[in-house]
Amino acid sequence: MPRFRIDLRADAFRNVLGFTFGHWRRQPWRLTGIMGTFLLATLADVLTPLYSGRLVDAVASGALEPVVLKDGEDSATVPGLGFRAWA
Questions:
Q1: Each residue of 16-60: pLDDT tens digit?
Q2: Is 78 helix (H, G, I), strand (E, B) or coil?
């Protein structure tokens, strides 16, 4: 049974990476947007366990007050951010 030789030529990697970096160098705003979005997604992944733990602690403590809606508000209101669902 013949043994196959793995041919890892540095030229192939150099050509592909050179093309890729040259392509992204011509699109700095797109690259910045992608990197920013990646950073925000990573931040959300890191903070999700923290806030879900706080939510579980708050529910487990049983110290929840009933929510009373004012006139003009509906149940889709997010109080912390001030967003409202307008009909």
A1: 999 999 999 999 999 999 999 999 999 999 999 888 888 888 777
A2: strand
For residue 14 the two structure tokens come to: 């150099």
Q: How far apart are CA 87 and CA 84, in angstroms?
A: 10
Round to whole Å and give the CA distance between 16 and 29: 22
Please say whether the beta carbons of 86 and 77 come within 8 A: no
Question: Which phi-psi region, left, alpha or beta, contains residue 54 (left: φ > 0; alpha: ψ -120 to 50)?
Answer: alpha
Is the distance from CB of 84 to CB of 77 less than 8 angstroms? yes
Q: Report yes or no: 73 and 84 within 8 Å, Cβ to Cβ.
A: yes
Phi, psi of 23 (to 5 degrees): -65, -45
- The structure's pTM equals 0.49
**Domain layout of the chain by residue ranges:** 9-87
Sign for the CA dihedral angle at 45, 46, 51, 56 comes to: positive
